[in-house]
Structures are given as C-alpha cells and as structure tokens.
Fold:
Amino acid sequence: MENIRATKTQEEQWMVQNHVFRIYDLVFRLPPHAQSVNFELRRDNHIEYLTKSLKQLGPNFTVLDANRPWLCYWIIHSIALLGDCLDDKLENGVVDFLQQCQDPNGGYGGGPGQMPHLATTYAAVNTLITVGGQRSLSSIDRKKLYAFLLRMKDASGGFRMHDGGEVDVRACYTAISVASVLNILDDRLIQSVGDYILSCQTHEGGIAGEPGSEAHGGYTFCGLAAMVLINEVNRLDLPGLIDWVVFRQGVECGFQGRTNKLVDGCYSFWQGGVAAIIQRLYLLVNEQLGLPNTFKYDCRTASDNDLSDSDGEPYSDGAASPENDSSQPMQEGKSNASAAIGVNDNGYKFIKGAIGMTPLFNSMALQQYILLCSQEEAGFRDKPGKRRDHYHTCYVLSGLSICQHSNIKEADSPPLPRDIMGPYSNLLEPVHPLHNIVLDKYYEAHEFFTTS
Ligand SMILES: CC(C)=CCC/C(C)=C/CC/C(C)=C/COP(=O)(O)OP(=O)(O)O
Ligand SMILES: [Zn+2]
Structure:
C-alpha cells in the first residue's frame, strides 16, 4: 500500500482526502432542459415483463441451459425490488425447480442433474431467500452446502467455481456470501481467502478477477463485499479503491466497468454497490489516510459507525472471535450456527451500522442514465442500441435502488424526495449491498438461519 500511495501526486492525495466525488456534483449539475424530461419509472410495465418471463420458463423450467437459477434470481429479485411478489403457484414452482437443481452432495447446478457450481449456488440461495418463508428457506440443505463449499476451497485460499474449475474472486465472493447469509461461515472457509483477494487488488486501486489481471467493477464488488463479510476489509488499500471507483462514472452519467471502456447500465450496481459499501467504511478509510475520525460535513460521529466486535476492538485482521471455534464442519442434523455467529454476523452488523460518508458518486446523474438511457418501455438494457435482458434489468434496478438510498443516514430509514430522480413513486425497495438481496427478505433469512 505504501508504494501505491507514494506514486500519487499531492493533488490526487488531496482530492481523495477531501472526497473527490463531491466534484461530480458540479460536473453533473442538471441542465435546465432536464426539467421537462419524463423520469418516471415504468413500474407496471417492468413487473408485467418480468412476471410473463417467469411464467414462460414453464412449470418445470424446461429450457436447456445452465443458467436457470440465475434467470430465477434476476427476475424474482427485480420483482422484489419493484415492491411486488409472486403468487403462491409461481413461488412453489420456483422452490420445487431449485430443489431439482440441488446436488445430492450439496450446492446447486444450472439445471436438474447438472454439476453444482458456485455461481448458480449463489443465484439459487439468493432466489430462495427472496421468495422467503419456511418452505423455501428450509429447502436449502446447509450441511451439504457447507461440504460443497469446503470442497471448492483451493490451496491458494481462494475458491474454484466448480470441481476442476477456475479459481477467481467471483468464486470467493459467491462462496463467502452464501456461507455468511446461511450462517455456516467458519474459519476453515475463511482461511487465507483474504490473502487471495488482496493479491487481486491492482495498481489502479480496483480489484481484478485473478492476480495479474485488470481491475474490473464486477470483481471489485465481489472482492470488497467478501472482504467485509470475512472481517478483513481493512487489509485493502481503501483510498486507492476510492480513487479508482470515483473515476469510473463517465460524462454519460453511467458507470464503466474498467478504464477506457464504455459505460453500461449493469455497472450501476457493480460500481454503485462498491461505492455504497465504502460509504459505511469511513472509519477505516480515515484510519488509512491518517485522518482524525470526525467528519465535519456529516452528522455522524465515529462511534456510530464502529464495525467493531462486542469488546470494542475495531474490525481487524480476520481474527476469529472467541466463540467462533468452528474448526469442525457442520454435524448431521445440527447447525454450528451459534458457534460461528461471530463471523456470520458481519453482514448484519454492517447493514445496521451508520453510514458515515455522503455518496461517492453522483447519484442523480446515475439515476438519469438509468431512467433515460437504460430504461425501455419494459425492462432495462446496457445502453441505447442494445436490447433489454433479465441480467441488465436486475442489475440496473439494483443500482437504481442503491442510488435512491445513497443519502440515507442510517439503516432502514426512508430516502428524502430530493434524493429520488423523478416522482417519489419511483422509489424501490432497499437492498443489502453485500448480498444484493432486498433488505426485508435478508432480515427474515437472518432471523431464520440464526435461530434454526
Ligand atoms: C456475483 C457474480 C457472479 C459476479 C460477476 C461479476 C462480474 C459482472 C464480472 C465481470 C466479468 C467481466 C470481466 C466482464 C467484462 O465483460 P466485457 O469485456 O464484455 O465488458 P466491459 O467492456 O464493460 O469490461
Ligand atoms: Zn452490462
């Protein structure tokens, strides 16, 4: 980190310290003609498009591809963000279908009988949590899932996507995210994963998929979220990461995924999510910058945002909590949830903590890009000229929710009308930025998996 910082000029250093993102407010101030533009979210059209798509997948989801849990997640998460839900028949169909994708030895494949894969496991778990309720949540075989995650663990500390598959930051995130939300995260899964992710932070400040590759928004989100969940985020060069992400918002108002590439609506979540996570890490950012932990421009006090252990020690190098002696995998019929609660609760503590920074990006500008450039009559796209799809609908809506809630001061408080581009009826459900699950459903799952 020393070396990275030493290559920066005094001016760059100054800009980070004074939160350069504030400059975006000047650059992207709304032009007068924007007053007459229709910024309305076409909520009903989006819900109709998504619900129809889910029904078209058929009662048995018989389309032949390896992405079916992803399709479920993209569609059902989007519907949840829009504040709607599925009828019982559709919900039960989804739970039954994902049950068929669950491997006898744990984890979920892309379809019935397909080999389990970390990406589709993440998609299936997030879907089942979003559906919610006893039937859906209890359909996840956590003991076998734990065994699958352990089998995917690589000697490098990272995870591989599937048996014999590639090791990358995406695999680390999907493994850690599901383990955390299902309350099966323990020291064996965490072991050295922070070293692997750290080795992927590049000279630019963002995080790459593998050591030596180029920093990219998708992997940066994965690496950062995983580091928070394992309580090792202070090992990253956070000022360097801020430097990188704030310059990824382009003059088009959307985010790009990497340097010198075109903006794309889906990065509204990948990069916007990174910014939203960093907003809750202000104590650590200040610590790394050698600044006192007081923010004159904000109403937070340092103690509000202390992501610390109960003994008051700040988030530190992934040292397991005393109660987290979870060196044994889950036993048959018995969750080791209470043993592992120390590490598993990082996601909960994180979302309940105060938000110490104002947004790191221009939220109103990004909302303009989303509503005017990404939004179609129904569904969302990468950019004008591209076609809508479920992936972009999911991540553009997730990014819109991040924008709308980027100015709130504490968890569970509603945004002000001035933070919503267009009418207040555009407001979406808030998400947990580490898992990208709507908050109400996250809370329900947290309760379910800490008590069962
Ligand atoms: C949870 C999970 C599975 C996360 C996945 C994260 C993610 C989106 C990774 C991005 C992968 C990547 C290198 C895309 C570049 O595509 P490109 O070259 O077409 O796009 P670009 O020009 O915008 O970089
Ligand atoms: Zn995209």
About this structure: Residues 264, 266, 382, 392 surround zinc ion (ligand 2) (CB under 6 Å).
